[in-house]
Write a sequence for this structure.
């Protein structure tokens, strides 16, 4: 099969204990939060925030079953927060073969769907995913997501947000040793996608970089906001906005705690965003 196994971030997954409270929190942050979806096979519910070429997903467990046992265990250990980055792919089988060849022991291809309402009609958004099994990343998990019906996910009318967000722009992981997952990441993304710079380990992933850095560097780059946890963990999501003043106004009007940086960036602490810090920055 011709194509590329991994093509950058398709969406990120924040796992939450209370899916309704999470919906309310992100609506207060100025996102257009899509109505709740249900993954019948997986026993999970979600709310999406759609952008032009990627999106953001809140997931909660609503029907415990073997397929969500790992997420339930993760939630119990960590109390919620950023858990996974879903990667674009030209084909689930292609990604499975590439990861198997790299010795990553991926799970079998999983196909599932969820109902969505579009123009008064109910459609089925269908996906095929491949999760990494053993030798998982220590800090941020990965899987590939093949969209079988992208027309039922990437809707332009869903990509309009009061805070002006146009794209998911990156993720930041706190790590005492930023290089601790380097060998693993090179297997997941390929050698050319991984580099070191300024003491960080950076995965250049389809224009949406993932940066691994020490807690000290995180504090210097994102002052005034507190990560949720004191240990190593995926700590922050960056969003590109069209107008930073617009983003600040939405947060101010909703009485959401935030910090405005001299360079214009706007930072939201993890406590206001279901366990993950938020950065709004100019596109």
């Amino acid at each position: 099969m011709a194509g590329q196994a991994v093509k950058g971030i398709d969406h990120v997954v924040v796992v939450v204990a209370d899916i309704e409270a999470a919906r309310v929190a992100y609506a207060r942050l100025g996102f257009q939060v899509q109505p709740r979806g249900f993954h019948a096979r997986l026993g999970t519910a979600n709310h999406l925030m759609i952008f032009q070429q990627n999106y953001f997903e809140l997931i909660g467990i609503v029907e415990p079953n073997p397929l969500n046992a790992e997420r339930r265990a993760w939630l119990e250990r960590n109390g919620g927060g950023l858990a996974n980055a879903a990667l674009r792919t030209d084909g689930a089988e292609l990604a499975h073969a590439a990861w198997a060849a790299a010795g990553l022991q991926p799970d079998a291809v999983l196909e599932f769907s969820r109902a969505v309402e579009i123009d008064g009609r109910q459609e089925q958004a269908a996906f095929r995913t491949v999760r990494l099994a053993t030798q998982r990343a220590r800090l941020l998990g990965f899987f590939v997501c093949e969209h079988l019906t992208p027309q039922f996910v990437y809707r332009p009318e869903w990509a309009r947000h009061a805070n002006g967000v146009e794209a998911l722009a990156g993720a930041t992981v706190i790590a005492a040793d930023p290089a601790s997952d380097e060998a693993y990441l090179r297997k997941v993304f390929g050698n050319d996608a991984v580099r070191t710079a300024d003491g960080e380990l950076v995965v250049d992933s389809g224009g949406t970089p993932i940066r691994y850095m020490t807690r000290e560097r995180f504090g210097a780059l994102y002052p005034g906001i507190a990560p949720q946890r004191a240990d190593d963990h995926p700590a922050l999501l960056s969003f590109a906005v069209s107008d930073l003043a617009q983003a600040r106004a939405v947060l101010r009007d909703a009485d959401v705690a935030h910090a405005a940086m001299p360079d214009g960036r706007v930072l939201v602490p993890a406590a206001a965003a279901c366990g993950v810090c938020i950065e709004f920055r100019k596109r």
Summary: The chain has a mean pLDDT of 92. DSSP finds six helices and 16 strands in the chain. The chain has two domains: 9-158, 165-282.
